[in-house]
Design a protein that fits this description.
Strand order of the largest sheet: 3-2-1-4-6-5
Helix content: 40-55%
Structural class: alpha/beta
Order of helices and strands: HEHEHEHEHEEHHHHHH
Shape: elongated
Number of helices: 11
Distance between the termini: 20 Å
CATH topology of the largest domain: Rossmann fold
């Protein structure tokens, strides 16, 4: 799947970020814990240069916890990088996360006194990954519009935290073309791409294939199958039948069944699923 969804405001945002970057001390990149590699924008490394980076693995409550720990180890092999699993939508985590960011900033910036000179931290990430939700949680009030559709935030926003940290939010950034086909599908499965820019049946077929191979027990439990469907189409048809996605004559509406499967995955109703592992990514690069 070659995704080319790059609205004009994203190009403007990239230019603005590049202009602002000399003033920034640390970059926070918010990733989707279910697809840490595919949600890692290659433009971020170019933009941040040698600045330290905190990678926040958001939506970690929807991801496979064992796989998330593997991603933490994978990212932290790089000098100056710290990976932290989070759930941006949980208010109780906000204060703890502020303290974690503060301590990481102290470590990364050496002897600098953050009380006197706050760390200037820019938050980056792809659309619909939870940046605005994170900003609102850290600030303790609504600063940024939040939505389930990508590309909600369209300009930079900033807040000063009492703990010696200044945060700057940015619009979600995709890159002009997603070259890796698997990454394109994974982005679409998680909802990082607008629904109007993807074919539900094609994306759901990809997801169904993966679920059958990697998480068969979760499918058996969720849909109460007596035995696992033989392939992706059979799975979609069974989901459609069990969820009432039928057309005249009792035939399964594959489009509606595809929407149902993707919606249930995105909402965590299938269980905690990660769509990629470090081993998968490294094997693909060989």
């Amino acid at each position: 799947m070659a995704i080319q969804w790059y609205p004009g405001h994203m190009h403007k945002a990239r230019k603005k970020i590049k202009e602002s970057m000399p003033l920034i001390d640390i970059v926070i990149e918010v990733l989707d814990a279910r697809i840490p590699y595919s949600s890692e924008n290659p433009l971020v490394n170019d933009l941040r240069g040698k600045r330290p980076c905190i990678k926040l693995l958001n939506k970690s409550d929807l991801a496979d916890p064992v796989v998330t720990k593997a991603w933490q180890r994978y990212f932290e092999r790089e000098k100056g990088v710290k990976a932290i699993p989070i759930v941006a939508g949980k208010k109780a985590e906000a204060r703890q996360l502020i303290q974690k960011i503060y301590h990481v900033a102290e470590t990364m910036l050496g002897e600098r006194n953050l009380k006197i000179k706050p760390a200037r931290i820019m938050i980056l990430g792809i659309p619909n990954v939870g940046k605005s939700t994170l900003m609102n949680g850290l600030a303790g009030k609504v600063l940024a519009k939040v939505g389930n559709e990508p590309a909600v935030t369209k300009s930079q926003q900033g807040i000063r935290l009492a703990d010696g940290i200044s945060l700057f939010d940015t619009p979600g950034l995709l890159w002009p073309k997603v070259e890796d086909e698997d990454s394109g599908y994974r982005l679409a499965v998680t909802g990082a791409i607008k629904n109007t820019a993807m074919e539900f049946e094609d994306v759901a077929h990809y997801a169904a294939n993966f679920f059958l191979k990697a998480y068969p027990d979760l499918l058996l439990k969720r849909y109460k199958f007596k035995q696992l469907p033989s392939d992706a189409i059979a799975l979609l048809e069974e989901v459609g039948r069990r969820r009432g996605a039928l057309r005249a004559g009792g035939h399964v509406d594959l489009h509606n069944a595809s929407e149902l499967l993707l919606t249930e995955f995105r909402g965590g109703k299938l269980g905690r699923i990660s769509l990629e592992t470090p081993e998968m990514v490294e094997a693909a690069g060989e």
